[in-house]
Design goal:
The protein has about 160 residues and is an all-alpha fold. About 80% of the residues lie in helices and about 0% in strands. It has nine helices and no strands. Helix 4 crosses helix 9 and helix 6 runs antiparallel to helix 8. The longest helix is centred in the middle third of the chain and has 27 residues. It starts with a helix and ends with a helix.
Length: about 160
C-alpha cells in the first residue's frame, strides 16, 4: 500500500484536519497529541435525541392511557406500602438534593462521594426500596405491568430532567 494514499484515506475517513497530517509526517505515527486533537473537534451530543424523546413520549402515553395520576390519588390512602414508598422516595431525593445543591453548588465540594462515601449508597438503597414499595402498592391495580409502567415513568422523568441541565 502507498503511504500517502493510505494517509489520505485515513484523513477522509476520520475527517482529520490537515495540521494533524503534517504532524503525522513529522512524527511518523499517530501519537497521543493527534487523538486529543480529534477529541477536541467532536461536537457534544444534542440534549434531545431519539433515545430521550422516546422515553419522554412513552412516559406521556403511559400517563394518559392508564390514568396514572388518578390511580395514584385513589391508592394514596389505601396502602401503607404507598406511604412507605413515598417517605423513602423523599429521603432519597433529600439526600440527592443535599449532595447536589448544598455540597456541590454552595460548599464547592465537587467530589462529595469521596469525602462522604456513605451518601451515594444510602441514596441508591432508599430509592430502590421506594421502587419496590411502589410496585407492591400498585400491584393490585396493574398486576405484572406495574414494574414496566413504573420504569417507563422513571425513565421519562430522568430524560426530561436531562433536557433541563
Amino acid at each position: 500500500m502507498d503511504a500517502p494514499w493510505a494517509r489520505e484515506q485515513l484523513r477522509r475517513r476520520y475527517l482529520l484536519p490537515t495540521d494533524v497530517e503534517t504532524q503525522l509526517d513529522r512524527e511518523g505515527d499517530t501519537g497521543r497529541e493527534s487523538s486529543t486533537t480529534v477529541e477536541k473537534k467532536e461536537k457534544p451530543l444534542p440534549r434531545l435525541n431519539i433515545h430521550s424523546g422516546f422515553w419522554i413520549l412513552a412516559s406521556i402515553i403511559v400517563t394518559y392511557y392508564v390514568d396514572f395520576f388518578k390511580t395514584l390519588k385513589e391508592n394514596f390512602h389505601t396502602s401503607g406500602w404507598f406511604l412507605l414508598g413515598t417517605v423513602l422516595l423523599l429521603v432519597s431525593l433529600s439526600v440527592a438534593f443535599y449532595c447536589i445543591v448544598y455540597l456541590e453548588w454552595y460548599r464547592g465540594i465537587e467530589e462529595y462521594d469521596v469525602k462522604y462515601p456513605t451518601l451515594v449508597p444510602i441514596t441508591t438503597a432508599t430509592f430502590i426500596a421506594a421502587g419496590i414499595c411502589f410496585n407492591i402498592a400498585l400491584w393490585d391495580v396493574w398486576s405484572f405491568f406495574t414494574p414496566l409502567l413504573l420504569f417507563t415513568q422513571f425513565m421519562g422523568v430522568v430524560m426530561f430532567i436531562s433536557l433541563l441541565g
